[in-house]
Design brief:
By secondary structure, this protein is α+β, with helices and mostly antiparallel strands. It has three helices and nine strands. Strands 1, 2, 5, 6, 7 and 8 form a six-stranded mixed beta sheet that branches.
């Protein structure tokens, strides 16, 4: 379940956003693309950053332990051709502001990434196949 940046002030997300923001390390992320029932996996990554961070929020769950959710915002540039939303990708200099800054400062970071995004459209089915990492 992703957290939409425009809903971080709602009852469900408010406390986690105010008190428990985190960084989610990524090398890329995947989106489903194509017609229903025939969707394939499209991988997106930052061209000049082999490892980067997305904005996240977390909470403790009795059932699952520590759980996190990636914060999403409206897509920009070529990413919008793949999906209408994308993770809030944080520049290294914004990591501390997201994790330790005020909620107002963190909200100001909830924008689409300005960097170049690499898009790798695959023939790998989105559903029914286990994802292979690495």
């Amino acid at each position: 379940n992703n957290a939409r940046s425009d809903r971080l002030d709602t009852f469900f997300w408010r406390h986690s956003f105010a008190e428990r923001r985190c960084l989610i390390p990524l090398t890329g992320w995947a989106e489903a693309q194509g017609p229903r029932g025939k969707m394939t996996r499209t991988w997106l990554s930052l061209q000049d950053e082999p490892l980067f961070a997305a904005a996240g929020v977390w909470r403790q769950s009795d059932e699952w332990g520590a759980c996190y959710s990636m914060v999403m915002t409206a897509s920009a540039s070529a990413v919008a051709e793949v999906h209408e939303r994308m993770p809030v990708l944080l520049a290294r200099e914004a990591w501390a502001g997201w994790a330790q800054g005020s909620p107002e400062e963190a909200m100001g970071l909830c924008t689409a990434c300005a960097g170049e995004v690499a898009i790798d459209r695959t023939a790998q089915p989105w559903a029914g196949v286990r994802c292979r990492w690495g």
